[in-house]
Specification:
By secondary structure, the protein is an all-alpha fold. The protein contains 13 helices and two strands; from the N terminus they run ααααααββααααααα. It has a single domain, classed as ABC transporter involved in vitamin B12 uptake, BtuC.
Length: about 300
């Protein structure tokens, strides 16, 4: 409810500052620009709820986008690009899962390391240039509509519906919460913790691959700096939505509200003339504020029961 209130306050403030902010065209633009972040944030919620984190998911998105772009240029059919993106993203996500589960590398170190590898590969393949002029075959996934409903709304609804089902109605979801609450106890209870980590990072990779596909479909090009800030934004949206950074507690509805809050704030800052360089500063400040407040709340609870 606090996040809903924050969204209403921010919307009212930017609406007063810019008459364009609450127009239907601008709000649809916000939704389209938010689709990649929303999809990756759903996967990030699963991983953080498990007690992990992925600070390099932008690298997975970037490499997958390059593969999709090159495939499109090579004449790969548009429909074949969808499973290609999912497989490439999933495989890159499994690399992180293997590092964190089998090799016991701390998640932040493993994902940061692989991100540098993926970025290096990206620069080697692109040579500092963009992939541009791609066909618009898959553009309806992002720019189309069904019965007057923007297609991005339906895409986000399907992704969050599937993730909510996995988290709330399956053994995998229950094990995610168990591992996030206490990994040692989960092992003693007979849960295959390494397998859960592998699948969670693989799922995030699949969703990052899908986000990369939608990115290419939306912009019809691949920029050299793709995905540089999306990990920070996805973590911020997840934490703002109520998922605890230590794991064990997650909220997909809250995550989606966090995405809406971040994208509305970014859009409003642009409309009122604030430099885009301040966007990351605002998101980082919000993340620090929420984590600080959560830490103080936890300290207060411990003091009550000490």
């Amino acid at each position: 409810m606090a996040l809903v209130l924050a969204i209403l306050v921010v919307s009212a403030a930017f609406a007063a500052a810019s008459p364009v902010f609450l127009t239907a065209g601008n709000l649809v633009t916000v939704l389209r620009n938010a689709v990649e972040l929303a999809i990756i944030s759903a996967g990030m919620t699963v991983v953080i709820c498990m007690g992990g984190i992925d600070v390099g998911v932008g690298g997975i998105m970037a490499v997958t986008a390059v593969v999709v772009g090159r495939g499109w240029q090579a004449g790969v059919p548009a429909l074949a690009l969808i499973p290609l993106a999912l497989v490439v993203g999933g495989c890159l996500g499994l690399v992180n899962g293997l590092l964190c589960s089998r090799l016991r590398v701390p998640p932040i170190v493993a994902t940061l390391g692989t991100m540098y590898v993926w970025v290096a590969i990206l620069f080697l393949v692109l040579g500092g240039s963009w992939i541009s002029g791609l066909p618009g075959s898959l553009a309806p996934l992002v720019r189309g509509s069904v019965a007057g409903i923007p297609s991005v709304v339906l895409v986000i609804a399907v992704v969050y519906g599937l993730c909510a089902y996995l988290m709330n109605q399956t053994r995998f979801g229950r094990h995610i919460y168990a591992v996030g609450c206490n990994e040692a106890s989960a092992r003693l209870a007979g849960i295959a913790v390494d397998g859960i980590k592998l699948r969670a990072y693989g799922l995030l990779g699949v969703l990052a691959g899908f986000a990369a596909l939608l990115y290419v479909a939306r912009l019809r090009n691949v920029e050299i700096n793709i995905g540089t800030t999306i990990a920070l934004e996805a973590i911020a949206a997840t934490i703002l939505g109520g998922t605890q950074i230590e794991g064990g507690v997650g909220n997909l509805v809250g995550t989606l509200l966090g995405v809406v809050f971040i994208k509305l704030t970014q859009n409003g800052l642009i409309l009122v003339g604030v430099s885009s360089l301040w966007e990351s500063a605002v998101i980082g400040g919000l993340l620090i504020l929420v984590l600080s407040a959560d830490a103080r709340r936890r300290a207060g609870w411990r003091g009550m029961f000490a």
